[in-house]
Amino acid sequence: MERNVWRTSTRSGSNGQCVEVRDRGVEIDVRDSKVPAAGVLRFTPAAWAAFTRTFKAAE
Hints:
Elements: E1 7-8, E2 19-23, E3 28-32, E4 41-43, H1 45-58
Antiparallel strand pairs: 1-2, 2-3, 3-4
C-alpha cells in the first residue's frame, strides 16, 4: 500500500458507499468516502493486519 495516499476499498461497489484507507507507516487510517470530514479510525499496522487477515479468512 502506498503511504499517505487515500485509496478506495476494492470491496466497494459503484453505489458510492465506500471506505478509504491510508497507510501512514505508524498507523493505518480508515474513513467514510461520503463524509471524509466526519472522522478517521486509526489502527496500528499489527491491528490492521489482524483485522484484514480475519476478514479474508471469513470469506
